[in-house]
Structure formats: structure tokens, C-alpha cells
Amino acid sequence: VQKITIVPRGSAGGYVWRVAEKDRLMAKRNYFLDNIAVALGGRVAEELVFGDVSNGAAMDIQQLTQMARSMVTRYGMSEKMGPLQFGQQDELVFLGRDLAEQRDYSEEVAEEIDGEVHQLVDSAYARVRKLLSDNIAKLHGVANALLERETLSAEEFEEVFSAA
Asked: Which of 15, 39, 128, 158 has the fewest CB within 10 Å, making it most exposed?
């Protein structure tokens, strides 16, 4: 974590800046699973604290869904589907066209892909829910510090997180 803020930016009600990993050419399965978990953090925290959810995590949900789908359809990172790629992507943006994906698989395979995407996200959701439930005092400590200061640097976050 580089910085956390609750100051709205665009469609986001708040934002977490993470330290960028330089020149990442390859990413392992756990990297994607961890990023999916991070993207679920706000949604799960909202549910734990308020007992309800809002549309505040819409962008996070869009990103984590795309990441999980790419794991299954592009990177061969699904245990059930195996090391296969599904759907051919035509990247003809330079010709004035949008990115397009051509479906080259059956409806049954599409259902299996959807099932695998759900499994990846559901597993990450359970992981995040347990982590935040087990550390609810730290969650409240960070939330209270953000309400007080609006933005926390990496150092301030570490200080608040460690103290709670």
C-alpha cells in the first residue's frame, strides 16, 4: 500500500494506491488471486460493518471479474479447464476497431468457464471475509483514521494497522 484515501475520485468513493511492480512481464496464479482478493476488500468490509452493500465497489467488481475470466480463458490458470485458451482476441485497435473477442467454444464450455470464474471469485471472497473478520479491530482502526484524516500514507497506514 502506497496511499489510502476516502476522498472521491471520478466514480470511486475512495482509493488504495498500491506500489507498482516494475516491468512485470509475467504474473503467477497467486498474483492474480491476491489482486482479486484486494479488489473484494472494500465490498466485504462494507458488508461486515454495515450488514449491507452499496454500488461503491462496482469498478472493483468489474476489474476482478475480468481478471478471473482472463485467468480461465486466456492464461490457462483454471484447474478444471486446464492449460487451454478459450476465445480468440482480435486486437485491431490500430485499424480503428475495438478489441473484439471471438467465441470459439460451445455453450456447455461457456457455462464451465462461468462456473470457474465464480469459483475463483467465491474462494477469494471467503478468504477476504475470514481475514477481515479475524482482524475487525484493525479494519475499524484504519476506517476511523481515514474518517479523521481522509488520506493515509503508507507509513501512517502501517502505524494505524500495527496499533489496532
From this structure: 158
Would the pTM of this model clear 0.90, i.e. be above it?
Answer: no
In the prediction, which pLDDT does 101 show?
Answer: 63
As a whole number, mean pLDDT of residues 148-155 equals 94
So what's the pLDDT on residue 95? 56
Which residues, 6 or more positions from 136, have their beta carbon under 8 angstroms from its beta carbon? 48
CATH assignment of 3-163? 1.20.58.760
- Using CA atoms, how far residue 88 sits from 8, 81, 84, 105, in Å, is 37, 16, 12, 10
Rounded to an integer, what distance in angstroms lies between the CA atom of residue 109 and that of residue 89?
Answer: 17
Q: Which amino acid is at 70?
A: S
Query: Would you state the cell numbers that stand for residue 136, as one nine-digit string?
Result: 475487525
